[in-house]
Design a protein that fits this description.
- The protein has 324 residues and is mainly alpha-helical.
- It has one domain.
- The protein is built from 11 helices and no strands.
- Helix 5 packs parallel to helix 11, helix 7 runs antiparallel to helix 9 and helix 9 crosses helix 10.
- The termini are far apart.
- 39% of the residues are buried.
- InterPro entries: NADH_UbQ_OxRdtase_su1/FPO (IPR001694), NADH_UbQ_OxRdtase_su1_CS (IPR018086).
Length: 324
């Protein structure tokens, strides 16, 4: 056991923490799909899934078995390699985005000094997965859905990144741990309310969630860029969407609501409770708002959200320079 040095133990402990955190994120994403259906049923005055297991508790297991045994079909004229890679890229990029989120002072996958830049990089990489899926399917509806999704995502990612610069300016770092520590006495939601507002809107849009689910508008595009996917390939897109919701909710908590800070309870519990609240807000938004037209979605981003983000950035810069 000469190889079991203190340095090796530190590496093994870090790897173990990373595996546990990422497995919890995937599990939360999977269970959120079940919770969403139950909550939508409650909001809409109807029953949710209640046939498999006690009160529908095994519905998620039934869905997983169904998806696993479905035929892994590839269209005849599709580009097989890119068609297969697209869902893997989407799932991996969204999962790795969570790697920079500190769950507690000692639990995180990676304590990067450029944590926020890493998140923006992974968010940009996910756009390629959508384009690959739409183009490689050799289906006009898939291609139109992919073009919509990429145009919408790139548009909203412009002020997704800009809305975070006010937080970075106040904390003086891109490191997520430093940003959380800077909120020990005052959460960023107060001085950076407009930054929070635009980041939350952009986060919903980047996840392609209602009301920004234009790439999957059933009445127009027959489910968008993943219409040709089935089996586990579709499952990677499906679970990846919910992992994106978990990641955006965790980032909102980390950047604007003090992360793990809170009285009485352990840090991890505070982080989990705050994140669960914003995950429920995603579901409530889906149940409450109608789907606008695509041109209205794009105009809202460029004509309202982007100017609001720039004004917030200018005001933050003025305050930081004045205090300096």
């Amino acid at each position: 056991m000469s190889w079991l040095t203190p340095e090796t133990m530190d590496i093994l402990i870090a790897v173990g923490k990373a595996i546990v955190i990422l497995l919890v994120v995937v599990t939360c994403g999977a269970f959120m799909s079940m919770g969403e259906r139950r909550l939508l049923g409650l909001f809409q005055g109807r029953y949710g899934p209640n046939r498999v297991g006690w009160a529908g508790s095994l519905q998620l297991v039934a869905d997983m078995i169904k998806m696993f045994f479905k035929e892994d079909w590839v269209p005849k004229f599709a580009d097989r390699v890119i068609f297969t890679l697209a869902p893997m890229i989407a799932f991996t990029a969204l999962l790795l985005s969570f790697a920079i989120v500190p769950v507690s002072p000692t639990w995180m996958v990676s304590d990067l000094n450029i944590g926020l830049l890493f998140f923006l990089m992974m968010a940009g990489l996910a756009v390629y997965a959508v384009l690959f899926a739409g183009w490689s399917s050799n289906n006009k509806y898939s291609l139109l859905g992919a073009m919509r999704a990429s145009a919408q995502t790139l548009s909203y990612e412009v002020f997704l990144g800009l809305s975070l610069m006010g937080v970075v300016a106040r904390a003086g770092s891109f490191n997520m741990g430093v940003i959380v520590d800077s909120q020990a006495h005052l959460w960023n939601i107060i001085p950076q309310f407009f930054g929070f507002l635009t980041f939350a809107i952009a986060g919903v849009a980047v996840c392609h969630r209602h009301p920004f689910d234009q790439p999957e508008a059933e009445q127009e595009l027959a489910d968008g860029y993943h219409i040709e996917y089935s089996g586990m390939k579709f499952g990677l897109f499906f679970v990846g969407e919910y992992i994106g919701i978990v990641t955006v909710s965790a980032l909102i908590v980390t950047l604007f609501f003090g992360g793990w800070h809170g009285p009485f309870l352990p840090p991890f519990i505070w982080f989990a409770l705050k994140t669960a609240f914003f995950m429920m807000m995603f579901i409530l938004i889906r149940a409450s708002l109608p789907r606008p037209r695509y041109d209205q979605v794009m105009a809202f981003g460029w004509k309202i959200c982007l100017p609001l983000t720039l004004l917030n950035l200018l005001a933050t810069a003025a305050v930081v320079l004045y205090n300096a």
